Amino acid sequence: MSGIFDPAQFLDAGISDTLKKRPPVDEGVYPGTLGEPKIRAWQGKADPSKSGYAIDIPIQLSLPSDVATKVGQANVTVTGGGFLDTTDAGGLDMAPGRNRVLRTYYEACGINRAGATPRMLQGRLIKVQIAHRMYEGEPVEEVKSIAKA
Description:
The protein is mostly beta strands. The chain has one domain. It is about 15% helix and about 40% strand. The chain contains three helices and six strands; from the N terminus they run H-E-E-E-H-E-H-E-E. Strands 1, 2, 3, 4, 5 and 6 form a six-stranded antiparallel sheet that branches. Strand 5 (about 125-135) and strand 6 form a beta hairpin. The longest helix is centred in the C-terminal third of the chain and has 10 residues, at about 100-110. The two termini are about 35 Å apart.
């Protein structure tokens, strides 16, 4: 790292060029490493009476050399996760069919057992299927599915 970054000075400094968007990662299956899960509250935009919690899980993809050359970097981080089903008492809903996303991550990591915690996902290796969806006319990467590495 060269120089000292000054956050106060940065807020008033102009950039020397335009910021560029990297090309999306090709659709396909890639090895990935799970990062630290984060829980966030959400509230419906169309229906503000709907709210709950979601888990966001960063996944660092290790790209093969041809894809890395195309996107300009060897590793790309995407975010997986989903909504959590909770009980009225505030716990995780353990009924069959509930918390499918969390179960999928636990099973891919071999930790779907009593006592497992979301923090245990961090650092685990998985396979990630990347797909594209259109957002404002441009393809955006999304985690389509995950599986055991």
